[in-house]
Design brief:
about 500 residues; alpha/beta; 7-stranded mixed beta sheet
Length: about 500
């Protein structure tokens, strides 16, 4: 009986994970099926020939304690090529540190240069980023609103490149592609860049070209103000206000456009603690958005393919608790189940392995190829990508649980390096869960060899390395952080 329950649980989890893997392959197929259409869509409509024909645009820049990147951001925004009589820049600053004086000084400088810029402070930080965007929207001048986070570098041609899309009155939002200014800083940033390229150059391209729903990514895009209002405005009952508003707007009939040819460089987190904080917010917020809107989506007027794709789009983070469960079940499954013969491994184990890992290689290979890079780079970095995903699974499992338990929550910003490394750092507790799971997975490696479950050996090794890799990075980073804080405290005492 125990044998049967264990077998059903183990292969049930593996089959669900394989389903998500096959979905990635489906997105790759959509990319190929609609390749010609994507080339046509990439060109966009003809741009207005006269500046007087351009619409009024407001650029919103939400800030919260961004002293290391505020000057860089505002300097780039000041260089945007757009008629000054049709452009407003809103600096929405909720900061409680020196960012206030830095941003205010830059805004004054822009005003002196003849730029219509305004420094906006709210009486409180209710709603976090969503609250700031909503506050600014109520007083902005533009019919169109572009949004950039503090770690982005808006390029001069950005507005002119995408504003013509709004000549179609049904277009509610245009999303551009993210670039990565520090892609080659470390293995961690290379893997992050690959993950985000997969989202932008496979998921967004496929969904847009095939007429599926996709989302505003929170930055590097432009909204029609009317679409925001008609969808119910910015709401802060989830931590992914961008995903939430995107689905509400598309359910109202607004059309979204993805422009892969327009890119905005951004800074990737350079330490794993900051990355975990970012991914935790995204995971929890996506689960909250699924709780809020998935039922409405499945009951909506959308086509069946659109509803199926939306279900996959809103539930990907449930793979993390399944991954943790799989690593826990692996050891007893290896011990209690007899080794399978060669044909059984070929017919059952091999397809499951391909479903869970082979699809990743194809998915990210397409993402690399789409930007003119060698697809083989994705294959070489795949082990590190899988290890990072596995290592963050326990932390993101907690995020999924929190998202299922409650709505809203604190919006924890991602620390940016910018001009001064170490000014902002993410705090993380010791990774005891990751260490325990790493030890358990190491026993699974030994058990797979001793019991002849050869196909399980690379899986067990992958779990072991992933948990150990992330745990080691967190321990090293937090140890260095505590030493730095201790040194700074000692310096202050001596100076006092």
């Amino acid at each position: 009986m125990l044998h049967t329950l264990l077998f059903v649980a183990y292969f049930g989890v593996l089959l669900i994970l394989s389903g998500y893997g096959l979905h990635r392959s489906h997105l790759v197929i959509l990319c190929h099926r609609y390749a010609r259409r994507m080339k046509w869509l990439r060109r966009g409509p003809d741009r207005p020939s006269l500046d007087s024909d351009l619409p009024y645009v407001t650029i919103q820049l939400p800030l919260y304690n961004e002293a290391t990147v505020a000057v860089r951001l505002l300097s780039h925004v000041a260089k945007i090529d757009y008629p000054r009589d049709r452009l407003e820049i809103q600096v929405l600053d909720d900061s409680n540190d020196e960012t206030q004086s830095i941003a205010k000084k830059q805004v004054d400088k822009m005003i002196a240069e003849g730029i219509d810029a305004v420094y906006v402070r709210r009486p409180d930080r209710v709603g976090y980023k969503a609250g700031a965007l909503d506050f600014g929207l109520k007083q902005c001048k533009g019919a169109l609103v572009a949004i950039f986070d503090a770690d982005f570098l808006p390029q001069p041609e950005f507005l002119r490149a995408i504003v013509s899309e709004f000549q179609d009155p049904t277009v509610g939002m245009v999303q551009a592609r993210w670039g990565h200014m520090n892609r080659d800083h470390s293995l961690l940033t290379r893997v992050q860049a690959l993950m985000l390229d997969g989202h932008h150059l496979v998921e967004n391209r496929a969904r847009f070209a095939a007429g599926r729903l996709f989302n505003f990514s929170g930055t590097g895009g432009m909204w029609r103000k009317e679409a925001i209002h008609e969808a119910g405005g910015w709401q802060h009952d989830t931590l992914t206000e961008d995903l939430d508003l995107s689905y509400r707007a598309q359910l109202k009939g607004w059309r979204f456009v993805y422009r892969e040819d327009v890119m905005t460089p951004a800074e990737l987190p350079e330490d794993v603690s900051a990355l975990r904080a970012q991914q935790y917010r995204w995971a929890k917020g996506t689960v909250q958005t699924a709780r809020k809107l998935l039922g409405r989506v499945l009951r909506s007027h959308l086509t069946i393919p659109q509803r199926i794709e939306a279900m996959f789009h809103l539930t990907p983070h449930f793979a993390y608790p399944l991954m943790v469960l799989l690593s826990v079940l692996l050891l007893p499954a290896l011990i209690l189940s007899p080794a399978t013969d060669t044909w059984t491994m070929v017919l059952i184990d091999l397809p499951l392995c391909i479903g869970t890992t082979g699809s990743l290689a194809i998915f990210y290979g397409v993402a690399e190829h789409a930007q003119g890079r060698k697809a083989a780079l994705a294959v070489w970095r795949l082990p590190a990508l899988i290890a990072l995903g596995v290592g963050m699974a326990p932390h993101l499992t907690k995020a999924v649980w929190d998202g299922l338990q409650s709505m809203s929550g604190e919006f924890v910003r991602t620390p940016k390096k910018g001009a001064k490394e170490g000014r902002y750092r993410a705090y993380a507790s010791l990774p005891m869960t990751e260490l325990a799971l790493g030890i358990l997975s190491a026993f699974s490696v030994v058990a797979s060899v001793q019991t002849g479950h050869w196909f399980a050996t690379p899986f067990a090794a992958m779990f072991t390395f992933g948990y150990a890799y992330v745990a080691a990075l967190v321990i090293l980073e937090q140890t260095a952080r505590r030493r730095l804080v201790a040194a700074q405290t000692a310096t202050v005492r001596v100076a006092g």
